[in-house]
Write a structure and sequence with these properties.
8 helices, 75% helix, 0% strand, mainly alpha
Amino acid sequence: MAPFEIQHYASFVSSILLFQLMPGPGTVMILDTAGRCGKRAGLAAVAGTLAGDFVYMLAAVTGLATFMPDGYSLLQILQWIGAGYLCWIGLQQFLAAGRLCAGRQVSTNVSHAFSRALAVSLTNPKVVLFFFSFFPLFLLPGASGFTLMAMMAHVTIISFVYQAGLVLMGSMATSRFAAMPKVHGLARRIAGLALIGFGVRLAFASR
């Protein structure tokens, strides 16, 4: 019997891992946020990413995707919104390369990090396609509600562990290069350029 009644369980777990290991705007954002604003803000970015994933997972498992009048048009809209947003925040990152988050603004930083990561996740058509085409492949006919919850829990837990590791990496890098502002500024500019690059690639991706 398949674990948790999930069809092709090993492939299911492997697919989640591969999805996480593929570098994307979420990865850059989590690393940069943790490095610039600290672990709390970095974890807030993780929470925002997971919240966006949860929205699309919920839509997928409840069958909402089948009620979309024109899924292709929706993906096009998300593609352009996502591309514009990534270029915008990437430009902000690049122009503010030397700035760190002020300690007295911790609550603001956390809220901003969460909302920004949530927006990136929700406007990423690749995330939509992944979840809407991903879950049905591993559902056995007549799968129970427990199976659906188990699948969602697998994605959330694996994603959190990996992304929390990114937060630690980002904060450790900042601690190591704290006395080297030029290095920190260069890293911030690279992060900004990476986000702009993801936005441009998304804008010109085949539809």
